Structures are given as structure tokens and as C-alpha cells.
């Protein structure tokens, strides 16, 4: 509930003509009371674009008196603040955020999701303008470099100015705005030296072209913006793939339920109005809106996969507890709510996922770590150059020119491209191998893993149910398939699939009826037949059944007049390459674990089939338990990769250092994972791991190239050994070298299809008979 009441009509009238006052009341009303002493406020800050932004906001807000904690979620650009309920003026949070240079808005999930595409479009427009201007200014500059003089030289310089000045001012806006925001809040970021370099070069070029020596560097200023925008666009596109999965989960939750009133009538109530003790009616196919308990005299089958991840339905009867989000499968039931929407399983999973997203958003990439040192170092070097030249020459023109050259050569084009170009090339390589990358920083996090944790159903095993071929003869299977064809239950569908696989034609069954929590029954001629629980089927069995293979593990039983009781055991079918994948991890020093919501016997049986050490498999794990176990493993053995697929795995996918899921996973699972593999084979996990280590290796090489370039270029610029034009060419060359180096990734990880074609061609050449020609 809100921490304070909303604005009354009388108060609203007082606020007319005072938008700030109304905004204060809206912000107060948006707070959510966590307990008697604390309140949570959630704001959106669309200008957040790097790790430095996160650190600036969190540190700034924590200094506000009354603020207990401040966390920034990069993927949703959301700021969550916990403050004292007795805080005199909560609006200080908004004011502080805006003083730090970040416009604050009340968080609106639907509005925020459209922000990324608008920013992308703006960056691409700026890139196109800078590219067009850069190409044309370069063409004009060629004539000047070639020796054009007199009127022709002046004309070309003025034409260059007409192109470069508006293009540089327009295309450089992302850098100018960011730099101004940082300076206004009394801090530095990487965009401050960029903006200074571009604007000083442009201003100096205009001065030289109109008043000075006639020498100008319009091509340098516009080329700087063009190369910097390439890195910014690539980085933005990779970062925008990181989207939270919370909204996906909330869409799955029931919006309300039918309440049974005291007089026996029913009334639809929104989920927020459901309170413990209310009696509710849940129809077949509906999700349970809140955690509840089945009323007396009721029984049904439920799909609890949201809680456990297991696709097998569970039979529940009077008094049994059912979690919010479970699906009612077989009959309408009456239940009693045991919790409100804010304390249900779905709400708990949302909280877990938000906490996981915030933790992952705080990860600092290699480029962001370097950025914290870059900006102050560049300013020190440029100012030292200017001061040194003024001290020695007393010539402000020469001093500014030397300082501008330092700013140009240190422009982080190569540094800015080092990470995103490696991520984009890596993502394209994985795409050809059937793997999608949702988050650029996932490459660095995947390369750091020391442990791999796998879910069971749908991850190590294929998601569909499969029944064992043994245990039931063809005659009984024909009758069972006839019964199963009248039901949409997952196990019934598995029976019909087994019959089709064995070429058994289902018999015609009449008087079919489904008994909630027990099974399905019918008649073949005058004979009663049943498919379901053991005790339910045994009641119509003819004679005693011989002990059959798989009987102990059987989940489903068939019997009837003329048929002995016969078991159908559910088999876990391993994903292709599951064992090979775990052995590759083992060889690479990665420890594998198994987490599942399934029973201990089922989990242990699967562990024994795979290279997973005893004691590294955990059963009956709830979503919260999986998150806790992953956190514990991370503390004990290093960064964790989690591979899972179910709705119940979503918090764990977010909590792990890095995560991966199959394409057949739930929407919530895909939204929370860093990698998604499209093939049935688990080999994609190894591909992503190996390529991620290579991507990080190339990022480090790119940084080394950029640092080596700066080590050589900065002293030359400081001592006047280069002009702004030569500095711009050197800067551009370093960027091209970085790109060329990164493209070597394609040689290390060639296209699998190309390899298949080459192998086929080689095989064809070997099979082709060789003809020897004897010269005359």
C-alpha cells in the first residue's frame, strides 16, 4: 500500500499553477511502505548509460539524510531508494538525482521500454550525418592537401566549414549533453575530453580559416565524431539487449479470481483485493491467483511447473496447499486464500528477480574500469601541455594548438571500439552457431565462470514427456491409447505418442470419464478399462501382474477387464551432447552441479548418468532455494554459470554470474538469460563459453593496441610533433587497427556451414577418379 494518501480535490486546487508542488505530492504518494520504519521509492532515469552513472547516482543518493540504500538497475534505468518513513522531505531524492545531472521521472515500465528504441534511432541519425559530412569534407581536404592555393583553397575551406560546423554540432549532441551534465554536477566523465577536443578543434579550424594562417582541420573534428559514434552505437545496441524479465512474469500472474460470496453467488475481484480467508472458485485451465488451500471435498490435478519446473502434473486433494501461478487441470475447485497478492509465490519470484537484476547491473566491465581513470588523466595531460607551452613560448595560439592535439590523439575511439566491436563480432559468430546473445557484458562474465549449474527437466533433459517402451504389451497399449486419446493431459499425450512410435493403433473406447486426481476410465465393448494412478487402475485389473521392468518408477498404470495391471514409466531423455558438454567443462576445470525441483530419487538417477560428482546434485529446490544455493556456490567456488529453462528458474537465471537457456524455455526464462541457444543440443553452452574467453582475450589485445598508440602519440603531441590533422589520422588509424584485429575472431571460429561445405567438397575430390594425361 502507499505510504501516504493521495492528493485530495481541495489540495489539488491549491496546486493549480504550481506543478512542482503537485509533483512533490505525486512522488510522496508513489512510495511503498516496506514496514513501519522504511519506504521504497522507484524512479526512472533515462540518461543512465554506463557504470560511472550507476556509481555517481548510488553514491550521491546515499549521502542524502534519511536514505538507507540506493540501487540502480542499468537494464531498466530504474533507481530504487529505501528511505526512513519519517524522512522530512522525500522529494530531496528527486532533487539530488537532478543535481547529479539525471532527469528523474516516476517509473513507468511500459513507457521505459520504448525509450531504448528512441535513443538508438537518435544515435543512428547522428552517425549518418557524421558519416556523410566526414566523407565529403575528406574529399574537399584532398584538394587542399594536394596543393590547391589562392581562391580555390579558400573556397574549399569555406565549403568544408559549411559541412563540418553544423554536422559536428548536431552529430556530437550525445557527447555534449553528457559532458555538460557531468560538469554541471561537478564531476568528469569520458565525454568531457571528447567534447573539448571536438569543439576546440572546430573552433580553432574556423579561426585559422577566416583570420589565421588558412590552415584548418575540419576533417579532424567531423571524423572524430564519426568514429566515436560508431563505438557508441555498437555499445548501445549490445547494452539494449539486456532487458529485465520481471514484466514477463507479472503477465503470467492471474489478474483476479471469482470470489464465492456468503450467499453462494460469485463475484470477480482483482488480485490486489484478495485477502487471506476469502473463498475462491478456480475453473479448469485457470491459474491460482494467490497461494491457497483446497477446500473440503475437492480434488484436482495441477501444473506446478512455475514453482518446481517439472512438467508432470501433481494430484492435490482437500487441505493441500497450492502456490499462486499453478494451473488447475482437471476440474473446477473451491479454495481458501492463505496469502494476499503481495505475499504469494509470484510476488516472491518478482522480488528475487529484481534483486538479481540489480546485482547483475552492478557488474563493472573492463571498459568501464578503464573509463574511471581515463577522463582525469586526459585533462591533466592537456592542461599540462597548455601550461608548459605558455610557460616556454608565451604563445597562446601554439599552446592551444598543442593542447588540442593532445585531446585529439587521446580521444577514446580505439578504447571505445575495443569492447563493442569484439562483442558484435562475437555475437555474429554465435548467431551462425544458433546462439543469441542478449547482453554484451555476458561475454566477460561467461569467461570468468568457475562453476556450471544445470537445471534438470528441459535443460539436461528434453522438455517433453516420454514413456518407456517396456512394461506394457501392445494389446494393453492399444487400449490405453484409446483412453488417452480422449484427454489433453500431458501424460495422456505421452501415451498416444508411445503408441504411434510402436505402430500400435488405438482401440475405440466409449463412456470415457476423467476422475480428478485419479485418472481416466472407459469401456471397450463390455470391458472396463482405466489409466491413471496405481490404486485407481488396479480396481478393474484381471489377475495379478508380473513384476515388470520400470514398475518401481512408474507414474502411470493401465488395467482393465481382460488386462493385468501394467506400468508405464516416464523416462528422462538426455539432450544431445549433454554428457559431452559436462566432460568438456570437467576438462576445462569447471565444476558441474545439478539443481532441480524434482524428487531426490529422480535427480540422483539423472546425476548417476552424467559426469557430476556425488553431493553436487540438489533436489526439491524452490525458486528461492535455487537463488540461495547459487549464491552459496559463488561464495565457495567462484563465479557461477546457470543453465535453466522454466518459469521457476527465472530468479536463478538472473542471480547467477551469467546464465543461458534453450529457445524452448518460457518467455520469463528467455527474458532473464544472457544467452539463448536455439538448437536441441547442449553443445551451444560450450560454444558460448569458448568464444566468450576468446572475446575477452581480443578485448584485452585491443586495449593493449590503444594504450600502445597513446604511449607513442601523446608525447609527440605534447611536444608539438603533430598537427591536429595528423593527430586525427593517427586516432582513426588506431581505430581501424582495433577493428582489423578483432575480425581475426572469425578465423578462429569459422562458420560451421562453411566448414561443412568445405568438408563436402574435399570428400568429393577424394572420390573423383584421377585422370593422368601423358604428354605427346
Describe this structure in words.
The protein is of the alpha+beta class and 776 residues long. The chain has 5 domains: 9-112, Alpha-Beta Plaits (2-Layer Sandwich); 115-240 and 366-419, no CATH class; 249-355, Distorted Sandwich (Calcium-transporting ATPase, cytoplasmic transduction domain A); 435-452 and 576-678, HAD superfamily/HAD-like (Rossmann fold), CATH 3.40.50.1000; 466-571, Calcium-transporting ATPase, cytoplasmic domain N, CATH 3.40.1110.10. The protein contains 30 helices and 27 strands. The strands form 5 sheets. Strands 15-27-26-25-16-23-24 form a 7-stranded mixed sheet, sandwiched between helices. It has a 6-stranded antiparallel sheet with strand order 7-6-8-14-9-12, with no helix packed on it. Helix 8 packs across helix 9 (191-210), helix 9 packs antiparallel against helix 10 (218-240) and helix 9 (191-210) packs across helix 15. The protein is elongated and about 110 Å long.
- The shape, in one word, is elongated
Radius of gyration, taken over Cα atoms and rounded to an integer in Å = 33 Å
Q: How are the strands ordered across the major sheet?
A: 15-27-26-25-16-23-24
Query: What's the helix count?
Result: 30
Unreliable stretches (pLDDT < 50, length at least 5) are: 1-19, 109-114, 242-246, 546-553, 761-776
Distance between the termini: 100 Å
* Structural class estimated from helices and strands: alpha+beta
The mean pLDDT is 77
Please render the helix and strand layout as text:
Blueprint: H1 9-14, H2 19-30, E1 32-33, E2 38-44, H3 51-62, E3 67-73, E4 78-84, H4 92-99, E5 105-106, H5 109-112, H6 115-145, H7 150-171, H8 173-184, H9 191-210, H10 218-240, H11 246-252, E6 256-260, E7 266-270, E8 279-282, E9 292-294, E10 299-303, H12 305-308, E11 314-317, E12 321-322, E13 327-328, E14 333-337, H13 345-361, H14 366-393, H15 396-409, H16 413-432, E15 435-437, H17 442-447, E16 451-455, H18 456-460, E17 466-467, H19 474-484, H20 490-501, E18 510-515, E19 519-524, E20 527-532, H21 534-538, E21 554-560, E22 563-571, H22 578-587, E23 591-595, H23 600-608, E24 617-618, H24 623-637, E25 640-643, H25 650-655, E26 658-662, H26 667-672, E27 675-677, H27 683-718, H28 724-742, H29 745-748, H30 752-767
Parallel strand pairs: 16-23, 16-25, 23-24, 25-26, 26-27
Antiparallel strand pairs: 1-2, 2-4, 2-5, 3-4, 6-7, 6-8, 8-14, 9-12, 9-14, 10-11, 10-13, 15-27, 17-22, 18-19, 19-20, 20-21, 21-22
Helix pairs in contact: 6-7, 6-10, 7-9, 7-10, 8-9, 9-10, 9-15, 10-16, 10-28, 14-15, 15-27, 15-28, 16-27, 16-28, 19-20, 27-28
Amino acid at each position: 500500500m502507499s505510504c501516504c494518501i493521495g492528493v485530495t480535490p481541495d489540495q489539488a486546487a491549491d496546486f493549480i499553477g504550481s506543478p512542482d508542488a503537485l509533483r512533490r505530492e505525486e512522488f510522496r504518494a508513489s512510495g511503498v511502505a516496506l514496514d513501519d520504519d522504511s519506504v521504497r521509492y522507484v524512479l526512472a532515469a533515462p540518461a543512465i548509460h554506463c557504470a560511472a552513472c550507476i556509481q555517481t547516482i548510488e553514491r550521491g543518493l546515499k549521502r542524502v539524510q534519511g536514505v538507507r540504500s540506493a540501487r540502480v538497475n542499468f537494464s531498466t534505468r530504474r533507481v530504487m531508494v529505501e528511505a526512513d518513513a519519517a524522512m522530512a522531505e522525500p522529494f530531496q531524492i528527486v532533487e539530488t538525482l537532478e543535481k547529479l545531472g539525471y532527469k528523474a521521472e516516476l517509473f513507468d515500465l511500459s513507457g521505459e521500454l520504448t525509450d531504448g528504441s528512441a535513443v538508438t534511432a537518435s544515435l543512428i541519425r547522428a552517425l549518418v550525418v557524421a558519416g556523410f559530412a566526414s566523407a565529403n569534407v575528406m574529399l574537399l581536404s584532398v584538394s587542399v592537401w594536394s596543393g590547391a592555393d589562392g581562391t580555390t583553397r579558400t573556397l574549399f575551406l569555406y565549403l568544408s566549414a559549411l559541412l563540418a560546423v553544423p554536422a559536428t554540432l548536431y552529430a556530437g549532441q550525445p557527447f555534449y549533453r553528457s559532458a555538460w551534465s557531468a560538469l554541471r554536477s561537478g564531476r568528469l566523465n569520458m565525454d568531457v575530453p571528447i567534447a573539448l577536443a571536438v569543439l576546440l578543434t572546430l573552433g580553432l579550424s574556423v579561426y585559422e580559416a577566416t583570420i589565421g594562417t588558412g590552415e584548418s582541420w575540419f576533417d579532424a573534428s567531423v571524423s572524430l565524431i564519426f568514429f566515436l559514434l560508431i563505438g557508441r552505437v555498437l555499445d548501445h545496441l549490445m547494452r539494449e539487449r539486456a532487458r529485465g524479465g520481471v514484466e514477463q512474469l507479472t503477465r503470467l500472474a492471474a489478474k483476479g479470481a471469482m470470489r464465492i460470496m456468503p450467499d453462494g453467488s460469485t463475484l470477480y475481484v482483482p488480485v490486489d483485493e484478495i485477502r487471506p480467508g476469502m473463498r475462491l472458485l478456480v475453473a479448469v485451465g485457470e491459474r491460482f491467483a494467490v497461494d491457497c488451500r483446497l477446500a473440503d471435498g475437492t480434488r484436482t490435478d495441477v501444473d506446478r511447473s512455475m514453482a518446481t519446473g517439472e512438467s508432470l502434473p501433481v494430484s492435490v486433494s482437500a487441505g493441500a496447499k497450492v502456490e499462486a501461478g499453478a494451473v488447475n487441470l482437471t476440474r473446477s475447485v473451491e479454495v481458501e486464500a492463505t496469502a494476499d497478492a503481495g505475499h504469494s509465490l509470484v510476488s516472491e519470484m518478482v522480488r528475487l528477480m529484481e534483486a538479481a537484476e540489480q546485482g547483475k547491473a552492478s557488474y563493472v566491465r573492463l571498459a568501464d574500469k578503464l573509463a574511471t581513470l581515463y577522463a582525469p588523466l586526459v585533462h591533466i595531460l592537456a592542461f599540462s601541455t597548455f601550461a608548459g607551452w605558455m610557460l616556454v613560448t608565451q604563445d597562446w595560439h601554439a599552446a592551444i594548438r598543442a593542447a588540442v592535439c593532445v585531446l585529439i590523439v587521446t580521444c577514446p575511439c580505439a578504447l571505445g571500439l575495443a569492447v563493442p566491436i569484439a562483442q558484435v563480432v562475437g555475437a555474429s559468430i554465435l548467431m551462425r552457431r544458433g546462439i543469441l546473445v542478449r547482453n554484451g557484458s555476458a561475454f566477460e562474465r561467461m569467461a570468468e565462470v568457475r562453476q556450471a549449474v544445470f537445471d534438470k527437466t528441459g535443460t539436461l533433459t528434453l522438455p517433453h514427456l516420454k514413456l518407456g517402451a517396456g512394461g506394457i504389451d501392445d494389446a494393453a497399449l492399444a487400449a490405453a491409447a484409446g483412453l488417452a486419446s480422449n484427454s489433453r493431459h500431458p501424460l495422456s499425450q505421452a501415451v498416444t505418442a508411445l503408441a504411434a512410435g510402436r505402430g500400435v493403433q488405438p482401440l475405440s473406447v466409449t463412456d470415457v470419464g476423467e476422475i480428478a486426481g485419479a485418472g481416466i476410465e472407459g469401456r471397450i465393448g463390455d470391458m472396463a478399462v482405466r489409466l491413471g494412478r496405481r490404486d485407481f487402475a488396479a480396481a478393474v485389473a484381471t489377475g495379478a501382474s508380473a513384476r515388470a521392468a520400470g514398475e518401481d518408477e512408474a507414474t502411470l498404470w493401465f488395467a482393465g477387464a481382460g488386462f493385468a495391471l501394467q506400468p508405464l514409466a516416464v523416462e528422462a531423455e538426455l539432450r544431445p551432447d549433454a554428457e559431452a558438454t559436462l566432460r568438456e567443462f570437467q576438462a576445462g576445470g569447471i565444476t558441474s552441479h545439478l539443481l532441480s525441483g524434482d524428487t531426490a530419487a529422480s535427480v540422483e538417477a539423472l546425476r548417476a548418468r552424467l559426469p557430476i560428482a556425488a553431493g553436487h546434485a540438489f533436489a526439491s529446490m524452490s525458486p528461492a532455494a535455487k537463488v540461495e544455493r547459487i549464491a552459496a556456490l559463488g561464495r565457495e567456488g567462484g563465479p557461477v554459470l546457470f543453465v535453466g529453462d522454466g518459469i521457476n528458474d527465472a530468479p536463478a537465471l538472473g542471480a547467477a554470474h551469467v546464465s543461458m537457456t534453450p529457445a524452448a524455455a518460457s518467455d520469463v526464462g528467455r527474458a532473464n538469460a544472457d544467452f539463448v541457444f536455439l538448437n536441441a543440443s547442449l553443445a551451444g553452452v560450450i560454444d558460448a563459453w569458448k568464444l566468450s574467453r576468446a572475446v575477452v582475450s581480443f578485448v584485452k589485445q585491443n586495449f593493449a593496441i590503444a594504450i600502445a598508440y597513446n604511449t607513442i602519440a601523446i608525447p609527440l603531441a605534447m611536444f608539438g610533433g603533430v598537427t591536429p590533422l595528423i593527430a586525427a589520422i593517427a586516432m582513426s588509424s588506431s581505430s581501424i587497427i582495433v577493428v582489423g584485429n578483432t575480425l581475426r575472431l572469425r578465423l578462429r571460429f569459422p562458420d560451421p556451414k562453411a566448414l561443412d561445405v568445405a568438408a563436402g567438397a574435399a570428400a568429393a575430390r577424394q572420390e573423383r577418379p584421377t585422370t593422368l594425361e601423358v604428354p605427346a
